Amino acid sequence: MTGFSSRVDRIAISGIREVFEAAGDDAINLGLGQPDFPTPAHARQAAVDAIESGQADGYTSNKGIEPLREAIAAKHRQDQGVDVDPADVIATSGASEALHIALEAHVDPGQEVIIPDPGFVSYDALTKLADGQPVPVGLREDLTLDPAAVEEAITDETAAFVVNSPANPTGAVASEDDIREFARIADEHGVLCVSDEVYEYTVFEGSHHSPIEYAEGDNVVVVNSSSKLYSMTGWRLGWVVGASERTERMLRVHQYAQACASAPAQYAAEAALTGPQGIVDEMTDSFERRRDILLDGLADHDIDCATPRGAFYAMPEVPEGFVDECIDRGVVVVPGEAFGDGGAGMARISYATDEDALREAVEIMGAAAAAVRED
Known about the structure:
Order of helices and strands: HHEHHEHEHEHEHEEHEHHHEHEEEH
Strand content: 5-15%
Structural class: alpha/beta
Mean pLDDT: 96
Number of strands: 12
Low-confidence stretches: none
Shape: globular
Number of helices: 14
Distance between the termini: 48 Å
Largest sheet: 7 strands, mixed
Strand order of the largest sheet: 2-8-7-6-5-3-4
């Protein structure tokens, strides 16, 4: 029998998924990383219109429809003050594919990719699928990534480093000074900075900044998606932006792996980007309220947690056995080590659930913590 590639044997099923499967059907799910808002009505209607008119029946260009790429370029002009040529945008099947093609196009076998630890599970796995070597870098006490630690980790074998702000799983938001430093590091060392900005609009304190705003060279690639910005996780529509030479190499991977992103989803994302933006503030305000409910509840139960300033995740320090005890009591949380060795002794909590369920879950988590402390 044909065996399996060494690449696939280097990775395993996500620890997040394993937790879901261990939970009961009636559990309160604080492990799912998606907004609980509906996709904006005008985005849905744009997809319906495209389907009914026949516009979505065939392949689009590999990079995606021109109006969508123009809308993404306009978004960068408005949000970052950066001029992006629509020809340097590739619409992808979610940010997951965008990350995949960015690493495949830039990482040779054995080369290193510096990733935050704890960090999003795909960074480690996609590096390994590209035959690269992940180099985890621990976080500061406030769970932000230190540019000095990234620079210290760079070697002659470093192909790229990943920046994620606002961050999954921590909810941390990088300061403008840190983002400037990441851009400088990319410029001075000639190393690619992959900036994962899928939670860009969910910032409670301060503001979002992108390395592409400050980079003097072409060593920044930006990954983003409509999934978290507009509550469109199921539509699987993301994008990647980079210099022309980099986009052309990423397109080579994309055209064979995917051909093009889903046509109906492209029309929906264009409408989301160009239509009314009220949903953005509505979601951000709601997530900030829920964050405060969670933090206050955790503090009442003597569970320490760095204050997340964005996204909709918190990563408290928890006693041993906490995650299993929560799951046994009907609350799904994810063990911190699912996001890297640096997550040991922590748990990721997604508070993208309704406030009543969140309050109930906090009390259950408090009881779970008390129970394992007594053991």
